[in-house]
């Protein structure tokens, strides 16, 4: 059985859990990370030298990096509907997954740590404002994209890209600040409610 190492509150672990729900993959999960088993031990570092969750064990195969993991799962467990093999359609999915993991993640980092995690090291008001402005700018990019598709981020069907993007939208709405009105993003978030695992792994009260 697939084993997932990582605490369920981690946004990157929740990518994997949501993908498993979409694909009906049974799994066992172990709590690793802050507040649970430490990831800087030789045992864990032998699985992921970066000391980060999630990590999966699928038989003898070990893999880390959340986007790599969910790409593997759809390829291994018959998820072509979520991750098409046609090159241009797959590239569009990859484009938005990579954008989420790089540009969007970097934009929210300081503000999220300040406003949600209450990190003492992230309380400079000018830095918070800069982060919120960048985050908002990136979310407007997403809003325009969703307005154009009228459906999901890579096009009409739900794809693998909507898992990390959906979790990012949940984080946006869950972070306490005055949000601009982004109608296409709001409609998209409502649309995601029909997906397996959404309530449990995305809109579950965890930003």
From TrEMBL:
Residue ranges constituting the GST C-terminal domain according to the UniProt record: 86-207
Domain GST N-terminal, residue spans: 1-81
SUPFAM superfamilies the record matches: GST C-terminal domain-like, Thioredoxin-like
Entry protein name: Glutathione S-transferase
Keyword Transferase: yes
Superkingdom of the organism of origin: Bacteria
Family of the protein in this entry: Belongs to the GST superfamily.
Keywords, alphabetical: Transferase
GO molecular function, one term: transferase activity
CDD domains: GST_C_2, GST_N_2
